[in-house]
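Hi R.,

Here's the chain you asked about this morning:
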Amino acid sequence: MIFREENMHLAIAGNIGSGKTTLTTLLSKHYKFEPHYENVEDNPYISDFYEDMQRWSFNLQIFFLNERYNTLLQLQKSKKNIIQDRTIYEDAHIFAPNLHSMGLMSTRDFETYQKMFESLNQTIKAPDLLVYLRASIPSLVNNIQKRGREYEDSIRLDYLRRLNERYEAWISSYKHKHLIIEVDELNFAENSEHLGLIINRIQAEVNGLF
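And here is the predicted structure, written out as tokens:
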């Protein structure tokens, strides 16, 4: 095993529909890491958010901030190796600023959110390796349609485009260890060779960590 024996933190980042949850599941089985998923199905705000983004944006982002922060606290207290589906940084640097810039979150709420994130960020560590799944808009739309979540039917294309632009800006300035995977031509969910390519790249990156 190339990883250290305990407290290893891998994170999967990417836009809606990029394949984060699928890859998290596959890698957790391969490495025998404990998976931590984004709490979507039990999120009390997400359906309302997609119906009325302006009304529910702040509630949704606070819910995700709390969920991911608690996950990170659990990691720091435990000795487990984990793999995380989406990071706390994506909420703070992509989703919340995007909602604010689109006029879907008030400046008052956005500033409150930023202050909360800045306070929490002082108490957490970055993942040992962040894997960013880069996907085009057609690829994202195709994946979103295939999984058929009813509340995602109302996602607008301009919303996905804006998120992609912010992801690119964020990853270009991300200062911690990371790996970019171009997923448009990969079908790692069904093709073991494609999954193997990703695993080989992750191992190459992790080998340089220690």
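One quick note: The radius of gyration is 17 Å.

Cheers,
M.
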